[in-house]
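Dear all,

This email documents one entry for the complex benchmark we are building for the journal club exercise. For each entry we list the sequence lines for every component of the assembly. Then comes the predicted three-dimensional structure of the complex as a token string, followed by one or two observations. Please use this as the template for your own entries, and keep the labels exactly as they appear.
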Amino acid sequence: MQALTSGEGPWDADSDAPALVGRATIDDVAREAGVSTATVSRALRQHPYVAESTRQRVMTAVERLKYVANSNAARLASGQSRTVGFIAPMLTSWYTSELMVGVEEVLTHERFDLLIGTANSASRERIFRGDARFQQHIDGVILVDVFCGDDGARRLAALDTPIVVLGEQLQRITSVSVDNERGARLAAKHLIQLGHKRIALVGGHNDLDVAKNVPTERAKGFRDTLQAAGLRLPAAYVQDGDFTIPGGHRAMRALLGLPKPPSAVFFMSDEMAFGALEAVRDAGLRVGHDVSIVGFDDHPVAGPIGLTTVRQPVREMGRLGARLMLDTLDGFGTVRHHPMELTLVERISSGRPA
Amino acid sequence: MQALTSGEGPWDADSDAPALVGRATIDDVAREAGVSTATVSRALRQHPYVAESTRQRVMTAVERLKYVANSNAARLASGQSRTVGFIAPMLTSWYTSELMVGVEEVLTHERFDLLIGTANSASRERIFRGDARFQQHIDGVILVDVFCGDDGARRLAALDTPIVVLGEQLQRITSVSVDNERGARLAAKHLIQLGHKRIALVGGHNDLDVAKNVPTERAKGFRDTLQAAGLRLPAAYVQDGDFTIPGGHRAMRALLGLPKPPSAVFFMSDEMAFGALEAVRDAGLRVGHDVSIVGFDDHPVAGPIGLTTVRQPVREMGRLGARLMLDTLDGFGTVRHHPMELTLVERISSGRPA
DNA sequence: CTGAAAGCGCTTACAG
DNA sequence: CTGAAAGCGCTTACAG
């Protein structure tokens, strides 16, 4: 970018800056400061052995020339990509993008790049054994909703790539996790305490063969709680909502079409619960009265529309995950599990059965 | 990343690949194919003057070695950053992130990187005259909700950096735009036709001194339509909702607290309308009956909750904007304006006045 | 159509 | 604490 042509105000050119053809390089700075490029490089990266006076001179030259290091050259020379991969089964869900924002926030601050990837069943193999984008030039990978059992986890841990898992806990892999079973228990208990007997469950990813852990754990917590209360969960009361808004809509319609529809439904994500709203309305019923609904996430729209939900601090999980990755890359890499708190937020979408 | 340790299934090592210490470089490929590195480079980038048989041999070697070019080296050598900047006043709104997803989609496909930036009043100057991240190593900039009048537009156009503007139309700058005035007119007309006389307006960015164009244009279309219908718009009926959910909540609460509250409100974004929902509920009123609400965007949750809104194809706008940027960078850079269609989607949040 | 070689702008042992 | 120099892995005129 060059200086602007003329005129006043915020779009003005900065007339203080020395005229340059193209951008200043490290050589320009070295010349200006009267030192070698090596010294400039060291001064700029907080290298310990640089005289304070030298550092000052370098900084002055940097300011004057508005020098910014060419990161391509820096990465090539140092062999460090300063890039972290981010892999999730579904990039468009609120949950995923919120995690991504958190991750991006701290990574950008540390001048790292983020490489985004989806992980459906077709691509998951490629990713770990040679996907074009991930095969090289990546320092580590942040995984969301990992799609593997204990066995897969063991193999993941054996990779020589730093890995951080978000949203669940895996053996021998650093993670920022949430107790999914407990979250589902909170939701189930809440509905049981309200007096509901016919409670349905809407999850997803049943046929994707990816991202199985999260729905599996939530389903378990839910079933266990119902069972402990002596309640049945008929097969027809378990629907696949695909973790999307339209999926939630379909699932709810199916449930309401049953001979004996449930009086309450737990959705494993708020977005699915949002989709359900329309189905309830179309059936001429009222949420919170005729049908109670509980979601999972605490999406920003959950509050405004009064959705009872299991809240998880998603953005915070993303931030923490990124920090753990950075720690690992810095060599402070003991495997750690960071549990995040889950809380039930009661709002008006759940009430006593009619 | 290295091969996995052992075991079967999707986490297996690929035993066909030649053992390599580190990654294959262009030299490895050249050796394997029996050609020079220059030829490998040409073959890989669809250079016209490469014999078909040579290209085949190179490709085979690439496959065998699972070669992937080091983009840092490629960018350094070619002098092309293959990076596009994306600047918006508010990164967390649905509108902005949806645009970003669209942009990211086509940019990634073309192996371009995206550099994200916010543009509040404090930083907008820096961006164009020397922000560390944008000063260099960027091929072009995509601007959302540009914050300048005709004068600013003229200066923007004079920059030697390719620019594409999203969401509105500016003199002499390529854009993917929407007729904001018309959108607001659609909303106003709809409410007027339903019989409303007391109609309020909730916009935002009033004190940010950024992103003024969009709210200004929408306000104009709205005012003009009311005036043409002989309706007044008292100052108290114009509120700042900050383009956020909490902002919409506050604005609605203020409106409902008025001695003579409006019977209908037009929000310049769906998210603000979402925030209003809670305020309406808290006041013991019903949306679509006691108060009609119209939004702008057609956010994914608008359908499920039945929000009447002015729909704009946001993701599509992002995609198109990215393509226009790529065209510009390829030298096909005539200034063009691509208008996108706006349509009113009538749902249950708007009805006849009580 | 292909190769030898310079060069992109940094970083980093290696000396001093 | 600092400098000279090699090298990171590509691309691209320049010859042929």
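Observations: Chain A has a mean pLDDT of 84. Chain A has 13 helices and twelve strands.
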